[in-house]
Amino acid sequence: MSIPVLPLLGRGLTAGGAAGLTAGLFSLLLAEPLMDRAIRLEEARSHEHADSGAAAVQHHEELFSRSTQHFGLVVTSLVFGLALGVLFAIGYALVHRRDPEAAPWPRALLFSGAAFLAVSLLPALRYPANPPGVGDGATVAERQGLWLAAVVIGVLGMVLVWQVYVRLAGRSAPVRQLAAAGTAVAVLAVLFALPGNPDEVPVAATLLWDFRVLSIASHALLWAVFGVVFGALGLRALGRTAAPAPSGAVPAG
Amino acid sequence: MSLHAGQHPSTTAAPDATTGTRDWLIASAAAIVALIALYAVFFDNGSLIAATGSYLHEFAHDGRHLFGAPCH
């Protein structure tokens, strides 16, 4: 089979770059003030420890100034967007291998929404983001394993729900939809069967909540921009190859 | 579904098996680079390239926290 994967890859990189940069600038403006505050509070906490005689745990090696780390946030977000763009394009090409150029707009939005759920929201529900100052260096390997497992479960779960829905195409709508919903619940159960985050969270509840909302908002913004750009580029390519395309294309299936 | 004269149904890629294979090789290479990049920003704790120490980790520090990746 020869699916034209390279045009999709190009669109994925463009959309990913735009999405990563947008999310990076958004979080630079809104999340960095919170992170700076969290770091100041962490420093205050470790000073208190020092005053009370306990060994000050200064685990932040000051390799970079805060402003360099602010810049690092935007770069990290850009790299994240580009990498997701590549993986998205390949997944999109495989799922739509029969007619990869059809219905680019609704498919891009649907696929981005699914990717947001699988890659961003589900793992974030199980292991919500924590601001700087939370996170024990001794447990980082364990937490990375758990987080990776949550992302993998999110992606595989999404594929599973989609497959259940597709394979029951001959059945009535209630059967199909209930089966897909039941599968989704089972995936959630597996996700929440993972062990919890072992770390303490010694941060004020309001700061924590605001940070987590901004974290999910950054993910959502990234995927929204991604879907819009990817879909728009697909529409443009479609307009180029066949000027008045009869858009009677079927959605994913 | 009407095929106009002189217009191929799919002009973006030649219906050629070797072109398809080449494209997928490029795509696979891109996927590997993407996974390494994700590892570098979200998982590395100073072991990816020994010489970089924890510079990579510290540079990506804020991004890791923001996107929910485990950090120290």
UniProtKB/TrEMBL annotation, chain A:
It comes from the Bacteria. The chain crosses the membrane at residues 12-31, 71-95, 107-125, 145-166, 178-196, 216-235. It comes from Streptomyces indicus. Keywords: Membrane, Transmembrane, Transmembrane helix. It holds the Pfam family CbtA. The keyword Transmembrane applies. The keyword Zinc does not apply. This is Uncharacterized membrane protein, predicted cobalt tansporter CbtA. InterPro entries: CbtA_put.
Automatic annotation (TrEMBL), chain B:
InterPro entries: CbtB_put. The chain crosses the membrane at residues 24-42. Keywords: Membrane, Transmembrane, Transmembrane helix. It comes from the Bacteria. This is Probable cobalt transporter subunit (CbtB).
